[in-house]
């Protein structure tokens, strides 16, 4: 029989074995719950190195807030269809010209505005404003300078004023180069209806130097109308084709000089960077109410085309002809101009123009109709160098030779008639002009 005193000594080896067995079971249980690639908790030796594998990014934390989806971008605000749109522009022109005839009166005759000899001169200044408001369109161009004086020189009111109505003259209108109001009617693509004072659509050249090849204008520009007063309807038939119909007082008439009206039919065609062209007909009585020729119906046919032969070269041609049958028989004219312009350098243009105007005055039963234009056939040649050191600024130097069948120009030694007016005494003139124009 084993005594109690020695019993605990005998139990120590068993307890120790039980303790070791229990520790081993706990370690194995922990190893089974750990991740596969984690080393066993009871092992201190490193595992053999495994080949590199692509590892996936750790999963997001459960507690982290999921990202919100991006809100779609809001479209840019578009202006209202009836928002007011205003465009402001303008230009100014100044020049010095020398006439080798040294005219006694200082006038270079039958030239548009560059008609003064040996003097510095502001030719014109124009402020141009255009507005759109939904279907409404408005256009006003104000002018000052010699252009304003000459623009309405032929506008003579046939009806005199009265005690309750003031008389009208060129000074009534001269500050206006054009002024129109319009409405784009909802017909097809939009029928534009306008009324007021319009710059004429006749001819290739425009009123502003910046829009022309040369500084001076051709004889055709000088002879044909500058403006019309009346109404116009225009419609864009296709992307490149526009047609227009006009009803106006006549040639350069702010108020009509007779009881008749004139009509214009116009077709314009454009292919960007290649071709621009226009054909036009105008018809109506243009003589004064009490003219000796009566009130014959005048017919005018006009057409021009501009061809961009190369991005640095452009060519243009303009033709015009017309007739009327009055008290002195048939009165007619035909005229033409050719243009060429090259751009040898980015800042340099060189242009040339040749033009001719021939008029056949009606003669019948010993009477002769008064000339509509120059009173002579005229021919001109013009060469222009156009230097543009920056956008919207042009310096031009020009030589021009004019010749005529009769004496219609002035030279040194001309005398005055009984009314104090100088009498033309030259059939040719040569001029050099230096001018500058800027626009915005």
UniProtKB/TrEMBL annotation:
Composition bias type Low complexity, residue spans: 30-46
Record's keyword terms, sorted: Signal
TM ranges: none
KW Zinc-finger (keyword) present: no
Sequence segments annotated as region (Disordered): 30-81
Highest taxon listed in the record's lineage: Bacteria
Signal sequence, renumbered to the chain: 1-32
One Pfam family matching this protein: BBP2
Protein name: Outer membrane beta-barrel protein
Organism of derivation: Pendulispora rubella
């Amino acid at each position: 029989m084993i005594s109690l005193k020695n019993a605990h000594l005998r139990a120590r080896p068993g307890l120790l074995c039980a303790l070791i067995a229990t520790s081993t079971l706990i370690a194995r249980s922990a190893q089974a719950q750990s991740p596969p690639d984690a080393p066993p908790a009871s092992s201190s030796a490193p595992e053999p190195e495994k080949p590199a594998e692509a590892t996936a990014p750790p999963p997001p934390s459960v507690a982290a807030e999921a990202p919100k989806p991006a809100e779609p971008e809001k479209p840019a605000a578009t202006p209202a269809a009836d928002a007011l749109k205003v465009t402001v522009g303008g230009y100014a022109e100044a020049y010095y010209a020398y006439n080798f005839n040294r005219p006694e009166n200082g006038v270079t005759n039958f030239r548009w505005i560059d008609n003064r000899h040996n003097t510095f001169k502001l030719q014109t200044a124009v402020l141009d404003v255009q507005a759109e408001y939904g279907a409404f369109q408005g256009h006003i161009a104000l002018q000052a300078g010699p252009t304003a004086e000459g623009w309405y020189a032929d506008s003579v009111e046939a009806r005199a004023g009265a005690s309750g109505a003031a008389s009208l003259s060129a000074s009534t209108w001269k500050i206006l180069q054009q002024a129109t109001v319009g409405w784009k009617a909802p017909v097809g693509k939009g029928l534009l209806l306008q009324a007021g004072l319009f710059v004429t659509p006749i001819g290739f050249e425009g009123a502003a130097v910046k829009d022309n090849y040369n500084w001076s204008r051709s004889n055709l520009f000088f002879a044909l109308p500058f403006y019309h007063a009346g109404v116009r309807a225009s419609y864009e038939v296709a992307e490149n084709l526009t047609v227009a119909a006009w009803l106006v007082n006549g040639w350069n008439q702010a108020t009509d000089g007779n009881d008749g009206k004139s009509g214009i039919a116009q077709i314009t065609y454009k292919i960007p960077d290649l071709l621009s062209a226009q054909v036009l007909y105008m018809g109506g009585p243009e003589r004064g109410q009490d003219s000796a020729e009566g009130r014959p119906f005048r017919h005018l046919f006009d057409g021009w085309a501009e061809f961009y032969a190369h991005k640095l070269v452009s060519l243009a041609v303009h033709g015009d002809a017309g007739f009327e049958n009055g008290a002195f028989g048939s009165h007619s004219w035909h005229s033409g101009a050719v243009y060429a312009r090259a751009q040898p350098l980015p800042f340099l243009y060189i242009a040339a123009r040749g033009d001719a105007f021939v008029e056949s005055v009606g003669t019948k039963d010993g009477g002769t109709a008064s000339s509509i234009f120059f009173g002579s056939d005229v021919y001109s040649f013009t060469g222009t160098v156009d230097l543009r050191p920056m956008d919207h600024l042009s310096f031009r130097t020009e030589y021009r030779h004019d010749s005529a069948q009769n004496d219609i120009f002035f030279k040194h030694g001309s005398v005055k008639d009984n009314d104090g007016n100088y009498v033309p005494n030259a059939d040719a003139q040569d001029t050099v002009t230096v001018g500058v124009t800027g626009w915005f």
